[in-house]
Amino acid sequence: MTSGALLEVADLVKHFPQGGGLFRSPRVVHALNGLSLTVAPKETLALVGESGSGKTTAGRALLRLLDPDAGTVRFDGVDVLAADRKTLKGLRRRMQIVFQDPYGSLDPRMTVGASVAEGIEIHRLAQGPEIRARVERLLGEVGLEPAAADKYPHQFSGGQRQRIGIARALAVDPEFVVLDEPVSALDVSVQAQVLNLLLDLQRDRGLSYLFIAHDLAVVRQMAHRIAVMYYGRIVEQGSRDDVLERPRHPYTRALLSAVPEPDPETQRVRIVLPGDPPSPTTPPPGCPFASRCYHSARDRRCDTERPELRSVGATLVACHHAETA
Amino acid sequence: MIGSLRGTVATAWHNPSGRAGIVVLGALLTFALVGPAFLPDPTRIPSLGQGAAAPSLTHWLGTDHFGRDLMARLATGARISLAIAMIAVALSLSIGTAVGLVAGSLGGGVDRVLMRLVDAALAVPRLFILLLLLAVWERIPIAALVAVIGATGWFGTSRLVRGEVLRLKNDGYIQAARALGAGRARTIFRHLLPNVAGVILVSATLSMGDVILLEAGLSYLGVGVQPPTPSWGVMVFDARNSFATAPWTLFFPGALVVITVLATSLVSDALRAAFDPRSA
Questions:
Q1: Is the pLDDT of residue A28 over 80?
Q2: Which CATH superfamily includes the segment(s) A7-113+172-260+269-317?
């Protein structure tokens, strides 16, 4: 484990029982199958993967918004999953989250001011009129007028709501923020504004981000490091440039080939993956990507032995054949 | 999308049938509140053997077979019927909301036990439970009647509220409140309760109609409000022997029951439409 990391997640497992009834035992959905990652202070780690890969579950599990079945999460040395109520409350002030859906993430029956003030009230960071002053300062910081505090969420656009969600998270002065696809529900023009805001806030406040995304163009703009997730675990991890320019895992390559190329002169082969990821209720014994793998060196070992994350070149890759192109 | 509860009621007011319902209910409440002050004593029997009189200038809606003024009895009956309905509904909504919030937000074993109990209670017809409970009393006091009706009416509401809570629980703002460190009480009272208020209000107006019919039915069966106290159900019951010769004794109380139930369901429909963001 990297020393000096702000957040250290190791072997996180989360299974959701699904279905089942009085006489039937439920099937189990494996959302996280041993996820490990670290986030350094003032760093952005992007967690990318297709839908269903467990990204959102990861973000919520490490904040203990849902309880993982196994694994450890340490924040600044404190064990998050074992924290008692009081310790957890203290941690909640330091770790925050911004949600994907700008419509569902604000209470429709609360004014914007009340939503942003909630964290300040819970942690008693200010009293009386000082609360309002703080709220207005936060709204200003995310580019909204002070008068926004008296309005209701439905009076704002998607991009403005996302700014409000950011202000609410920042109200408790966190050090680390999970950004759960914060711009994927927004128009492209608005996306850029919100991303710039997030970059400015990171610079001004020295924030660490876990940036959950599926859009690699957005990731390129935000991330220092990238972790690619497939079937509930990391399959490739490294610096932004190493992962984007020299991807080693066949899944990462397929993901990158799907990014639209603005220059029509550039010819690029689009890798279309056949089939779907393995069923989340029945994990395969070997490499979870084997059923869709197009790698030339793919062999029987891929079906029987699960590849561990290992160092290949500058990145960490979970593939038996990472050395062969 | 709707911002506030007041906005929702305003939207319901702009719906023509909702407005009609609100106006009718308002008129009924006024009739119940101020009517008895201007009308003769509803229990006084003027002189024996007078029989039922048809509507006339002295008795606008006529008299019943004891010669009692029908309008006076309807006004006092409105007080009793509406008061029973409102208090019983308030009682069952409070219990139902509390159970629904607890089951939905705690989940797990608490939820399973509570909901299985509710399932069991819902499987038994309400009238059967009521008749069973009321059989214990010879002449049931009105307070006990209200309590019994209220205590048997919350099962559906608790399911409804629980369902809403389960739906809301995964919404971003509930998760955000948890992430900010909000405790259970804060989440319930600041976020869940205001957001389920809509379905509670709709459910309230819906069960108003049910309870008015139920009270009328029980009183008609002789196990509800006891004569000579007039409730609309008691009046229908009283008219059972005279309606062939004096149809107004049956018609007016029956009509008021129908009108009231219709008006509450109009209001409830309008409120439901107003709460549905797709129609706003």
A1: no
A2: P-loop containing nucleotide triphosphate hydrolases (3.40.50.300)
The domain spans of chain A are 7-113+172-260+269-317
Structural contact between residues A45 and A229, judged by C-beta atoms closer than 8 angstroms: no
| B59-87 pLDDT tens trace | 777 777 777 777 888 888 888 888 888 89
The per-residue pLDDT for range B251-268, each reduced to its tens digit, is 888 888 888 888 888 888
Strand ranges inside B170-267, DSSP E: none
Q: Does domain B5-39+68-275 have CATH number 3.90.1210.10?
A: no
Helix residue ranges per DSSP H, A215-288: 216-222, 240-245, 250-257
Interface residues of A toward B, Cβ cutoff 8 Å, are: 60, 63, 65, 88-89, 92-93, 95-97, 99-101, 104-110, 115, 118-119, 122-123, 152-155, 165, 168-169, 172
Predicted complex ipTM: 0.85
**DSSP labels, B36-69:** HHHS--TT---STT-----S-SSSTT-B-TT--B
> Could you tell me if B186 lies within 8 Å of chain A, comparing CB atoms?
yes
Going from N- to C-terminal start, the domains of chain B cover 5-39+68-275
Q: Which residues pair with A234 in a beta bridge?
A: A229
Token pair 């019943």: residue:
B64
Cα–Cα distance, A292 to A274 (Å, whole number) = 6
* Helical packing angle, B126-134 and B142-151, nearest 10°: 150
Contact predicate B142/B82, CB 8 Å: no
Contact A138, A167 (CB under 8 A): yes
The answer to whether the CB atoms of A108 and B182 lie below 8 A apart is: no
Look up the pTM and report it.
Answer: 0.80
